Structures are given as C-alpha cells and as structure tokens.
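Bench notes, bay 3.
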Amino acid sequence: MSEQVWKSKLFIGGRWVEPSSDARIDIPSPSTEESLGSVPEAQPADVDAAVAAARKAFDEGPWPRMSAAERAEHLVRVGQEVEKRYDEMVASFSAEIGAPLAVSRAFHDNAKKMWDDASTLHERVAFEEERTWEDGGHGVVVREPVGVVATIIPWNGPVATASLKIAPALAAGCTVVLKPAPEGPMSTLMLAEALEAAGLPEGVISVLPAGRETGEHLVAHPDVDKVTFTGSTAAGKKIMSTCGERIARVTLELGGKSAGIIADDIPLDEVIPSLGFAGIISSGQVCAAITRIVVPRERQQELLDALVPMFESIKVGDPAQDDTVLGPLAAERQRDRVEEYIRVGKEEGARLVTGGGRPEGLDKGWYVQPTIFADVDNKMRIAQEEIFGPVVVVIPFDSVDEAVDIANDSPYGLSGAVYAKDEELARSIARRVRTGQISINSWGMCVTQPFGGFKQSGLGREGNVEGIAPYLETKLIQYA
C-alpha cells in the first residue's frame, strides 16, 4: 500500500493537519496478528478543533445556505471519488478487519449506492411546503438542517456505515464530524481522501479515528446538535443518556438477534442458499445477521441434515484469497467473546451440532469455526444475547403462533426473514414480527430503503427519505 497523507495527519475541516499529540493507533492483521501499520489517534483537542470548524461552517459558511440541488452536485462527486478508490478500499477493509474479498466488495458496492441515493434526495424531499388550514390560515413548512452532527461508527463496515450516515446528513445541509472505530480506520481515511477530492467547503467534514474516551468527548460536546451512532446496545444506552442531558438529537442503530422463521410447507433447498449464510456472513459480525433459525419441531433434523454439511464445507481462511468464505474475527477480544458464548451454550444444555472450536491449520489469526447449536430454548443466553460471531442457534416450534412469539421474545428487533410457499402466510408472519426490516423467502439488508430497529435495536431510521428526516428540523412560518 502506497504512503498516504492519512498515515501521519488527521482530516479536520476538510484539510490534513498535524495531530495534537503523538498518540497512534496500531492496526493488527486479524489473519496473521502482525502489524499493518499505524495511524494518528485523535484526542479531545482534535475533536474540539473539528467541532469548531463544523460549527463555523454551519453558522457562517455556504454549505447549509446552498440549495439542496447544489449540495447534491457535491455528493455526486463524492460518489465518483469513492468509486475511484474502490479497489484500495476493498483490499484495506479485508486486511484490517478480516472480511473476505466478496464481503468487502459487497460493502463497498453499497457505499457507492448510498452516495448515489443521497444525491437524489432533493428530488424526493420537500424542503419547503406551502400549507393552508382552517380559518384562512396559511404559511410554509420549512425543513432546515439540524446543525453539527457527530457520527460514530463501528469497525465491521466502516465506509458503508459512514456513507449511510454522512451522505444524508450532508444532503440535508449539516456539517459532520466522523469518528471511526480504532479497529478499522484505514479504509475510512481513504473515504476522507474522497471527501477532500470532491471539494466540499471548508469545515464541512472531519474524520477522526479514535477510541472510546475521545468518542465520549465528541458526544458530550456542547456545540454538537445531533449524534448518530452505530454499535452495541450498551454503548447506545450511554450515548442516549448523554444526549438526554442537553436534549441533543440522536439516532441509534444498535444490536440484533434476528430470527429466520421456516414454515412447514417450503422445501429446504429453497431456504438454505440464503438462510445458510444469513447468520454467518462476515463471520457473523453483522448486526442484521439471522442468528436464530426457528423451525417446525418435526423439521429440525431435516434442517440440520442440510445445514451441517454446508457449514462444514465452508472455506475458512485468508480473507485475501478469492475462494475464502469466512475470514477471522476482527479482534482477539472478539474471538474470546465468541468462544465464551460457545462455552455458555454447552453449559445451558444446547446441543452443539458442528463447529465450536478453532479451524485446524490456522495457528495464527482470530478464527472460529462456523458453529450450529440445536435444541435451543429461546430463554437461553445464546438465543437472547448478540454473539457477533459465526454462531447460529436452531430453535424448534410447534405452531406458527409460537414461532412468532419466539421471534418477538427478544430485546432486539432489527432484521428477520420468513420462508414459506404460502405467500399469504409468509406476509402474515412478516407483519406480526416486531422488527425494522424483514424479508420473505430471502435475506438481505436493503441499504437504500429505511433501515433501523424496534426495541433495543435502535432509534430512528437510515436510508432513503426516512434517512434524511433525522437531520432536518421542521419550522412553520405563518403568514398574516
């Protein structure tokens, strides 16, 4: 990888500047455990500088005062610059997080879609709307940018997640300070290069890789008007509490424990191709993964007979090889967490059907075999808590009503799937499951449509016109 300015400087207010300290983030390879290099680690002083630049750009600069169509032209250019860096971003994400190339490509394809979608939002959102009401009243409803936005993203899809958040924020006319996680900063700093090349006005965007304490400083900053966060539910609760102290606006996209319900009328060869990978894609490090498979009791063994050979045939290994299906976990602590849940599942009495250990021949790297537990009770911890690893639990049911109850008996509600030949039955089940997105006879995250969760899976929506709404304040101007 060629020398880049982001290896020594921070991107603050649209310019590469010297960091306030010599603190650095070392980036280990999840597949070899060797260092990939390091980048500057932002400190609270850097956050203060970025927020000050964003505040000035919002209060005095041209960005929020441009027409939405003018801002859209800049977003088109960002998308073009992201596309130019596609191969480099894909390789970087695979190296620093351990995602197989196919997964990395899919994430970065989505990033481009998000910029393209955001660049057309002005054609679908009424920033001004004439209103009349009783007694001859009339006026205009104006939708204005909320202000300075703090954007905090996780490591499991940094460029895609950043794009999902900052593209609509910029389309709304907001200014943004983006804090990527310390585990995946390289590809996000390449996004900063794309933002610089697109020529956004001074102060509009900053990108500051940093750890938790710096993130907390950003969330609590009095000049930040809104916080948007993707990450764990535990962290989301803390962020929501901090924002509540000063009534800052907040959007949260948090954890998931999504269920895939299989009806008794559908052949499993129509289910396995999508459901088989829905729980373990990117080694299960996807918030919307289908990690609970809810199956008729009399079909559980039939499902296992189809699913186990598929899991055991999956190539686990070097994420840089095109035929690798599962790479390592992103961090050693993440592997430790997954292995602890596997131990808990055994203690709880679930039946370990396949996996549960480390793959043979992979002495270096944070790998875990794709794992299936069967005969799982939905009250077990492995059915209730987000594992964030390649672990799927199979939960039998005796009636459709019970299947829906199992799917809904969770603190989460982010994604889901229903598999049934009877379309009316499938749609009925889908409407009864309390979740933000649910697929019928397939699974996937539709990033250009509203995405977000019920219950402890989050607050607010991202994507499409629903995704720009949290970045807008609504004002009524009444005419005499």
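Next record in the batch:
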Amino acid sequence: MDHKRKITMCLFLAAICSSVFGEEWRATVSKNLEALVGSCVVLPCTFTHPASFLSNSRLRGIWHRKDKWEEIFYHEESTKILDNFKGRTKLLGNLGENNCTLEIIEVKDHDNGPFCFRIEYVRKENNKPTTEKFSFVEECAEIKMLYDTPKPKLGPLKTAIEGKAYTVTCSVRHTCPSRLPQFTWSRGSKDEITEVHKHIHSGIWETESTLAFIPEEKDDDTELTCTATFNGGRKSFTTFPLNVKRTENYNHIIIPTVAVAATAVLFGLLCVLMVKKYK
C-alpha cells in the first residue's frame, strides 16, 4: 500500500512540475507603432513565465537593440543606457505583474528601433544566486516617425438651433497614454467640457473632448476652434463655421390673423343684429 502511495505521489509531483516548468518564457509587444517626433510614445509589452508568481525584486527588465544587445535603450542602471536615450526612457509596467511596457519621451527622428525586451531572473540554487537571461528578439517593436502633427477631428458638424443644447466632439488619436494630449476650445467653460480616453487597439489610443453649450443668435456665423496640444508642446487645430438657426417667431402671422378673424366675427354679429332689428 505504501509503495502504491509513493508511486501516486511521484506521478502527482511530476504532473505539477511538467505544467509549471514545461512552459517557456514569452513576450508580446506591439511590433509596428507610430510616434510624433518631439512628443512621446508607449511600447505595450507583456510576458509570461513558467512560475505562478515571481517577485518584482528578483526581476530586471532591459530594452536593447535587436542586432546589438550592448546598445541599451533602458536599464535600471542609467550608466548602461545609450547617451542619446538617457533620461528619455522609463519602464511603466510592473515586472511582478508581467508588464514590461516602455515609455519614450522627446522622440527623435532616429528612435525607430527595433526595440527588443530582455528579462533577467535571479534565483537561488544551492544558496547561491544564479541569473537567468531571456531575450525576445523575435518580438521587437519598430517605430514609424510622424513629422506632421495630427489634426483633431470634429463631429458631428450640424446646424445649431438658437436656445437648444448643442454638442460637438473633438478627437485625436495618439500613442502616448501616459502623457495625454490637452484640448482647448475657442469658447466654453470647464463645466461645458468633458473628456474621454479610450484604447483603440494595441499601441493606439484616442482622446475625445466634448463641448456642450446653448447657442445664441450672436453665435451665428462665428468660428469654433478646437486645439490639441501634444506632449512636447506641438499643436494642431481644426476650425469650422458655426451656423445658428434662429427660432421662428410667428407673431407677425398670428396677430394679423386673429385681428381679421375677430373683425369678421364682429361684423357677422352686427349683420345678425341688424337683420333682427329690421324684421
């Protein structure tokens, strides 16, 4: 009986070990991104590993060039980073949560990569620390530079009606959710403006600013402008003419009509009275 229990226990442990240690270290990044020169860009990155949990203190994340591992874009020891990237890269993700996302600010026109992630895991073996290194050179990010500042989009562009609530949305897509674009309108107070941020797909986000106000007659034929300011100070704007439809005033029709009707009634009553009198 004891022999059978030992065999069963061994099989059970073997199954656990195979499920835990049979997996591989893997990383997933957004391979093709766009970045506005002078602004910032975020490179989404996640990774998996065989263990169920690894302490953040035992992990070290590094970003390097694909074909030149010694050219480092990010390292927790700043002295190891390439001079032209020092102070411009930051690891946004928490390695203990399998997040290796990288931020690059003040994007230069030569920051196109490819950017590859490497992780170093320190484990103890026979009470001695051993470092395991895993570079994911098959999962690297490349950046396409944008030299023209994206123009914000406005919509829906419809005719406003005097005295009735009117809304218009200004939106712009970007690649830096850690440093969002800022919107300003040519009119409207803070209470009239709301903002929404959403993730479109891997590496692309969108920020929307909605202006809601009550148009007046004086707003007709004026211009409404939305300006987007990106991290780094670059700006772009979109303008459209605001057309306000005046509320129809029917007094000039109603009053004469009522007067004519009243006159007709009085004349009719007068005729009836005259007929009765002479009869």
